[in-house]
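Good morning,

Attaching, inline, the backbone tokens for the sequence recovery test we're adding to the shared suite. The designed sequence is right after.
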């Protein structure tokens, strides 16, 4: 009987908590169109646009907790050779996974990715919502610059709600 009482008390505490998760998620649910994507280097603060000044892409957050994103660099053209076809992989980014919102952060457990090494990784971003604009700032990760992997980088992305 004591166990049953504890289960009832625990259930009463969990009932009000669950809608708050849904409320947190609701603010980013929808389809977002890419405005800009920059990569910042931690040591210098320098920013560059790895997909060019006008990349294209969409990020989708479903109410059920699925996030999908695809981004392609500006200036992509249909390939004529195997080498050109292979190079196209470096000019796009695509992942999907289950996400959760914790305050001003969302964390995605990646289950499908254009780069297999990302599968199983938890990707974390802080976000700020201003009207129909969503700014995402990724966590610091090892990056490469001129073939060196000793630098730390993060992405800074701006999205607008798709109409």
């Amino acid at each position: 009987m004591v166990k049953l009482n504890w289960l009832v008390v625990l259930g009463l505490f969990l009932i009000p908590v669950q809608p708050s998760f849904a409320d947190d998620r609701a603010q980013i649910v929808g389809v977002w169109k890419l405005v800009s994507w920059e990569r910042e280097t931690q040591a210098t603060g320098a920013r560059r646009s790895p997909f060019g000044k006008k990349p294209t892409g969409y990020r989708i957050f479903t109410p059920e907790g699925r996030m999908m994103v695809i981004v392609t660099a500006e200036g992509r053209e249909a390939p004529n050779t195997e080498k050109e076809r292979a190079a196209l992989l470096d000019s796009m980014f695509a992942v999907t996974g289950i996400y959760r919102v914790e305050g001003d952060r969302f964390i995605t457990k990646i289950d499908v990715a254009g780069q297999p090494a990302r599968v199983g990784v938890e990707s974390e971003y802080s976000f700020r919502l201003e009207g129909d604009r969503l700014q995402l700032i990724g966590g610091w990760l090892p990056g490469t610059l001129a073939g060196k992997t000793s630098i730390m980088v993060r992405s800074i992305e701006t999205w607008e709600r798709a109409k």
